Sequence to fold (355 residues):
Amino acid sequence: GKGGYDHYMLKEIHEQPQALRQCLQERVDELSGAIDLGDDLQQTVRGAEFIQLVACGTSYHAALYAAQLFRSQGVPAQAFVASEYVTAPPPYSEDTLVIGITQSGETADTLSALREAQRRGVETLAVTNVVGSTASRECADALYIRSGPEIGVAATKTFSAQVVAANLVAAVLEDRGTHHDFASALRDLPSQVQEVLDETNAETVAERFVDSEAFFFIGRGYDYPVALEGALKMKEITYEHAEGFAAGELKHGPLALVTSETPVFAVVTGETGSKKTVGNVKEVEARSAPVVAVTDGRTDVGRYADEVLEVPETDSRLAPVLANVQLQLVSYYVAERLGRNIDKPRNLAKSVTVE
Ligand code: F6R
Fold:
């Protein structure tokens, strides 16, 4: 059941601290800070010279994020929309690893991309929530995100767990061995998510902007996939026009869309170019668009914002998870005000088993 919540989506948003604890359990050693994903998987990951990620929708946003993490460890990595990977397969080498990120493990496009990789004799890894799913059975290796069942069509807790799982893989890539600071940041993440859930003002923000013409989301670096995900969640469950942009792309076209009727959600966390995003916020403000800053307070972006959705400070690589929780809540409350069918949005299915 919905455990006292009006919708599965809200229940699942609130299950995120637990979902992340499960994802981390026995993979991060409390004392030494060592990260352990099992010998087989670690060998596969460390043997990879190139990584290609394939995924759809929300999982694609997790893949974009993962690719950036892996690149930061010096491993060339690229995320592909699964259907495009199949349409125009990129070059590969013997040492390429193809990682499919798929909550359900049943998404037809992602399975096709993984099968394409297997036909080429390339190593495959499934990052999935469902034990025994097609992706987990067909790939050479599987990494389970252990979120528990997700019933709402909109992916919430599974996105957060995918991002945490990607961080674990990146840590193994770097052979960080024991990395106390990062391990303790990981350990604190579930309670920081809880803090966001307990203290959020997302409902107020939703109420203020529910009648907007459109919703825009910007971010750079690790905040960029969060901007895309914030927009996808918004359009999916509210049926309103929403778009996510790399903050730096704003002035290359999208800025023409920005008016006083279009709030811009600026995700500004960590160290990845936050200052530049503050510059973009000023540009938006000059066009009289309302600004909602989703921020950890490392910059003064709050000074230029009409509303602030605060997140606790953590490692730059993890902060986007917290920012995303705020955006999930804003979308939820906008959809609720608009009376949408939140758990089963029109035209959408939880598991898309046709290409
Ligand atoms: C968005 C959403 C979809 C899925 C996509 C991939 O909230 O749920 O975009 O993320 O259909 O699904 P999986 O992860 O099961 O492959």
In short: The radius of gyration is 19 Å.
